[in-house]
Amino acid sequence: MDNKAIANVLYETADLLEIDGQDSFRIRSYRNAAQAIENHSQQIRSLIDDPKQVLAIPGIGKSMLRNLQELFTDGRLAVQTELLAKYNPSMLQLLKIQGLGPKTIALIWSAYKVSDVDGVEKLARAGKIRELPRMGEKHEAKLIKAIEDYRRISGRFLIDAAETEAEKLREYIEKFPGIDKITPAGSLRRGRETVGDLDILVTGKACTTEEERQKAIAHVAQYPPLMDVIASGDNKISFHVRSGMQVDVRLLPPESFGAAMQYFTGSKAHNVALRQRALKMGYTLNEYSLATLDGEKPVAGKTEEEIYAKLNLDYIPPELRENLGEIDKAQEHALPPLITQADLQGDVHMHTVETDGKNTIEEMAEAAKARGYKYMAITDHSKNLAFANGLDDKRAVEHIARIRAADKQIDGITIFAGIEVDILADGDLDLSDEVLAQMDVVIASVHSVFNQEPAKMTERLLKAIENPNTSLIGHPTGRIQLRRDAYAFDMHAVLTAAAKHKVAMELNSYPDRLDLNDVHLRQAKQQGVKIVINTDSHHTSHMEKIRYGVLQARRAWLTKEDVLNTLPAAKFAKAMKHGC
Ligand code: DGT
Ligand code: CA
Ligand code: CA
Ligand code: ZN
Question: Rounded CA gap, 48 and 578, in Å?
Fold first, then answer.
């Protein structure tokens, strides 16, 4: 159990204690401990055998220490288990609904003895929530909306979280003798922006006979973060891990591995279309092989490449397998040469300690250089973002001077002076034109007043695009995945204006943003708008997140030509000034 998982259990327990009406001192002690553990730099797991060190953490006393010891030995907390038995484990789902806190949940419980999402939704739709003390129609409508949002996002995970889970599991399974390959399939392999469940495929000698597979499955069943086994069969085991993610592990003999990779990578729509093609050609295609219809003689199965080749298709990269025309293009040998990470020459959205970043200009530049970039840009925030200590005109000019000095001092990489300037509610940019004109890269972004009428928001973005200093629009839709919807505006109109004014759109690679997403990227390309793939790094360690952006770009069929930061430095700089 890592610190985050421990903190989660403690936060949940605090909420349950509050629902139970226990004294506030006790509730607070759980919340304080959770917060301290969440922010602690060392893993509690590594300290637990030395109680002194644990007690030295502020907010953790003797009774909390006993809780932690219990968590590590039993994997759960008796206090929490008892409360969940009293109120039903479904209470934990209710707590995940935005705006629904322990106080309201307690109110609903005491009036109706309801503790699950479906039940609360029924109450709300029947007008029963507004009848509770301190609640009204507005609260009720908000709750219904929040439940709808919860339904939409629950059970999905950000791509980086899914990747981390897959990697941890790979390291574990790998230890079992006779395993050659462990590969994620499904939506993770296709690079989708969020992942429902993990599909892990395993092959090797240990997967050849049923007897051997059972031993390997027994090993997987001992995976420490495994919470419960959902199903276990001849060649498959499904379970939940502690984060709540579902994992399907399948064991395949080597001669079927390619067919299984193809099948379980999906998407379902791609598979259906591919199978229809196979049938027309006299084959059947399933997770075991591509075989002849008469006699069922396998003709391919060991690799995906031979399956596509036998179907007279060029190999289709997983990111394109969504049945959006890729099969026709593969037949015509006309799939686009998708952009790769190696094509990128620079990353031009980065923050430093001058605003809300964690590293200096020099540290960010050295990290970018170590990645092999030829250029990068420092783009700190502007003053409208007060909580981030955004720059006013004067500080922005001083910052440009610092960036220029660092650029002189550090060889082997060009450091552009830039800014991420706020687009104010009326579409004006947050710094003077005179200062913006001195910047090499001006990213204009919306960071406030997200709830304007769509027409107003469109106008706001159009005005920012028309500003001659704007190089690109940052995270253009403002969505935060699994948390906040995009603000509403007319994408077609905005892209039309961007094409006209040669303003680029950002593909922000941060896993909770991925903004523009694959659908909008494709639309941008169709409308002739160029893309810049950035990380929005606030720390040197964030720069590697660029690969999630590249995955989305590939899903959108983008090539090197569609992305400006594949250009050499001088050409890129010119593009940021609309070719002038
Ligand atoms: P997710 O988990 O919701 O993020 O999305 P996927 O794409 O990983 O979907 P999942 O886990 O339900 O199934 C993994 C793959 O297995 C899917 O992409 C294609 C294949 N598959 C699943 N069900 C079917 C099916 O009914 N027909 C066909 N042809 N393929 C299927
Ligand atoms: Ca899946
Ligand atoms: Ca699955
Ligand atoms: Zn931003």
Answer: 58
Kindly report the pTM of this predicted structure: 0.82
Q: Under a CB-based contact definition with an 8 Å cutoff, are residues 272 and 323 in contact?
A: yes
Burial 249-278 (b: 16+ CB within 10 A, else e): bbbbbeebbbbbbbbbbbbeebbebbbebb
Determine how β-strand 346-347 pairs with β-strand 472-473: unpaired
- Ligand nearest the Cα atom of residue 247: 3
Q: Is 111 helix (H, G, I), strand (E, B) or coil?
A: helix
SS3 for 481? coil
Predicted confidence pLDDT, tens digits, the chain (580 residues) = 889 889 999 999 999 999 999 999 999 999 999 999 998 989 999 999 999 999 999 999 999 999 999 998 887 899 998 999 899 888 988 998 988 999 999 999 999 999 999 999 999 999 999 999 999 999 999 999 999 888 776 778 999 999 999 999 999 999 999 999 999 999 999 999 999 999 999 999 999 999 999 999 999 999 988 888 999 999 999 998 877 789 999 999 999 999 999 999 999 999 999 999 999 999 999 999 999 998 889 999 999 999 999 999 999 999 999 999 999 999 999 999 999 999 999 999 999 999 999 999 999 999 999 999 999 999 999 999 999 999 999 999 999 999 999 999 999 999 999 999 999 999 999 999 999 999 999 999 999 999 999 999 999 999 999 999 999 999 999 999 987 889 999 999 999 999 999 999 999 999 999 999 999 999 999 999 999 999 999 999 999 999 999 999 999 999 999 999 999 999 999 999 987 6
Domains located in the chain, CATH noted: 3-153 (1.10.150.110), 157-250 (3.30.460.10), 257-331 (3.30.210.10), 341-576 (3.20.20.140)
Tell me how long the chain is. Answer: 580
Q: Hey, whose CA ends up nearest to atom 24 of ligand 1?
A: 268
Within 10 angstroms of residue 529's Cβ, the number of other Cβ atoms is 25
Ligand 1 contact, 272 CB (< 6 A): yes
Closest ligand 1 atom, residue 267 Cα:
18
Whether the Cβ atoms of residue 17 and residue 30 lie closer than 8 Å to each other: yes
Which pair of structure tokens corresponds to residue 128?
């029963």
Query: Partners of 422 in the beta sheet?
Result: 445
Ligand 1 pocket, residue 511 CB under 6 Å: no
